[in-house]
Amino acid sequence: MKRYFAVAAIMVATSCTSNTNQKIALSATDSTSATVADAATPAGVKLKDANVEAIYNGYISLKDALVNTKFEEAQKAAAALKVNLASQKGCESTTLIADKIATAKDIAAQRKDFTALSNDLIALFKHADLSAGTIYVQHCPMANNGDGGDWLSSEKKIQNPYYGDEMMECGRVAEEIKSAK
Questions:
Q1: What is the mean pLDDT of residues 153-160?
Q2: In the 8-state DSSP scheme, what is residue 175?
Q3: How far is CA 137 from CA 32, 73, 156, in A?
Q4: Which residue of 40, 47, 94, 128 is 20 to 30 Å from 18, comparing CA positions?
Q5: If residue 31 lies in a helix (H) or strand (E), which one and from where to where?
């Protein structure tokens, strides 16, 4: 049991969670960031920090591209996500993962790296200031050759990014992240 707590502590310490409350101003000249930040937040999810909200929106765009097995859209979404992650203190390693997804050679490689990206961002959003809506942490036990894989969603309905239409509804809601009203 102590080992699990140690692993959890290490994940939180190395994940993209430090200084999530720090306000980061989006550059008006950075069109990629502005486009993602200006996009409507999915399913009423609102975060207090504009850059953290832009990261969430970018992540959902990437997840949706993987759900729909759209390789090029996933590349573009990951590239835009990378820009917002780069401006968030503590997200340096997560930025590198987004870059790997953006430059991947096929959708299988994107889906493989999506697991690490999701794990980091789940930790980020568990500690973010959510002002409205619910973020669902979902889990597919069959992803990654049976090791399982988690992802974030704005809705309870399962749409599996690891398998797309091959196994669209494989998974379950593992946790709900809600505002602390």
A1: 96
A2: E
A3: 26, 22, 9
A4: 40
A5: helix 31-38
